[in-house]
Write a structure and sequence with these properties.
Layout (H helix, E strand, L loop, with lengths): L2 H9 L4 E3 L1 H9 L5 E6 L8 H15 L3 E6 L21 H15 L8 E5 L1 H7 L9 H6 L11 H8 L6 H17 L3 E5 L3 H13 L6 E5 L25 H9 L3 H11 L4 H6 L2 H17 L1 H16 L8 E4 L4 E2 H7 L6 H9 L3 E3 L2 E2 L5 E2 L4 E5 L3 E6 L1
Parallel strand pairs: 2-3, 2-5, 3-4, 5-6, 7-13
Antiparallel strand pairs: 1-6, 8-11, 9-10, 9-12, 12-13
Helix pairs in contact: 1-2, 8-9, 10-13, 10-14, 11-13, 13-14, 15-16
Length: about 400
């Protein structure tokens, strides 16, 4: 392929590039480029929103370049403020470390392991901030508690200050930390979501200050979550995780509004969008759900998930296979829901009951009744079933 053809291919699906001319120069140099993507392990799972930029990173790998995936174990404890309307809760080091362990295996569902360099930014940011390994500096401790009311460089910061929401000095400094990542790994290109534009541009500035050639910046669209309103986020509960079970993944994707479904086609597949829109929406949605489920679980599991969905939701039948739970003594229905693993806690179980999301043998239960042990099918929500035996 010519440089121009490669450039056109890489620019497909991007929102912004700084700059096209610089990217063309780097591509034509014949050098193996270092293409950076940073992810903060703020939760245990990567989700489809991450796959938009990971797909672009894989595209560079397929052209022979090196993916530098930075796990932000340091910056996750700061919290990326991009697009946030409130301060992100500070995570402790143990939680971040546990989350980080899950990220690499999930990322390899998209990336070529042989062309991927995994780095953790605590490697250089702890010394950068003056802290010793295993401890933070006094500066970090202080900065977490300093509220800034004068800096209006970012729209999300400005909005928070106008609303009276706290904004710490540490959050203001987040782009500096992310920018220094580019210096540390000598990035040629950095990828990010469109809400990361200020952060990734900071990398260019810091590289110039450190005598490096500035990286090219490429931003990608944000994937709207399953609620159809805000960007996909684990904290908002509107996500489809790489590690979701096949039935859950397929079911979540089938719940998308039609308009959002087409956006998913555009950002997550290579399908001809015009051809998709010319077909029946329900069949198009099943095809989308099948393609994405197959990507993370294989074609056989995707086909089984489609069959499960059609049995349970299209024909409103009880699935043939489900987990079994033995109820040995009477107790609150909410206790049964938690004990069977269909809710994480009592408050969630009671909320599901009050919302009418719980059924026993197909009959809706709207009160937290005393459950007398019997053989029945417990259904929680649209997709979760459990066979209760006494």
């Amino acid at each position: 392929m010519t440089t121009e053809a490669v450039l056109q291919s890489l620019m497909r699906g991007t929102v912004d590039i700084v700059s096209r001319e610089e990217l063309a120069k780097k591509l034509s140099s014949g050098k193996t480029l270092r293409v950076k993507l940073g992810v903060d392990p703020s939760s245990r799972d990567l989700h489809l929103g991450h796959s938009v930029v990971l797909d672009k990173l894989r595209q560079f790998q397929d052209l022979g370049h090196t993916a530098v995936l930075i796990i932000g174990d340091f910056t996750a404890q700061v919290g990326d403020p991009s697009g946030r309307d409130s301060t992100r809760p500070v995570l402790d080091a143990e939680t971040v470390a546990a989350n980080a362990k899950t990220y690499t295996g999930q990322a390899y569902k998209i990336l070529d392991k042989e062309r991927t360099e995994i780095r953790f930014n605590s490697e250089w940011l702890k010394p950068f901030m003056g802290g010793q390994p295993g401890s933070g500096s006094d500066f970090i401790t202080t900065a977490k508690n300093v509220t800034v009311s004068t800096l209006l460089g970012r729209e999300d910061f400005k909005a928070r200050m106008e609303e009276g929401s706290p904004l710490s000095l540490l959050e203001i400094l987040y782009p500096v930390f992310q920018g220094y990542d580019s210096v540390a790994v000598k990035a040629d290109i950095e990828l990010g979501g469109q809400d990361q534009r200020l952060n990734v541009l900071m990398g260019r500035d810091l590289q110039k200050l450190n005598g490096q050639e500035p990286q090219v910046v490429m931003t990608m669209p944000l994937l709207v979550g399953t609620d159809g309103v805000k960007k996909m986020s684990k904290s908002l509960g509107n996500y489809v995780a790489f590690n979701d079970q096949p039935n859950d993944m397929f079911g979540k994707l089938m719940s998308l509004p039609d308009a959002l479904m087409y956006n998913y086609y555009e950002l997550l597949t290579s399908e001809d969008l015009a051809a998709v829109k010319a077909g029946h929406p329900m069949e198009a949605k099943k095809k989308l759900a099948g393609q994405i489920t197959a990507r993370y679980h294989g074609a056989q599991q995707a086909a089984a998930a489609r069959a499960h969905f059609e049995q349970v939701f299209s024909r409103k039948e009880i699935p043939d296979e489900m987990e079994t739970f033995r109820a040995e003594k009477p107790g609150k229905l909410s206790c049964l829901i938690v004990a069977s693993g269909m809710a994480k806690g009592m408050n969630e179980a009671r909320r599901l009951i009050a919302q009418g999301a719980v059924r026993l043998d197909g009959e809706k239960v709207s009160e937290d009744i005393i459950f007398e042990p019997k053989n029945c099918v417990l259904q929680v929500g649209r997709r979760s079933f459990c066979r209760v035996v006494k």
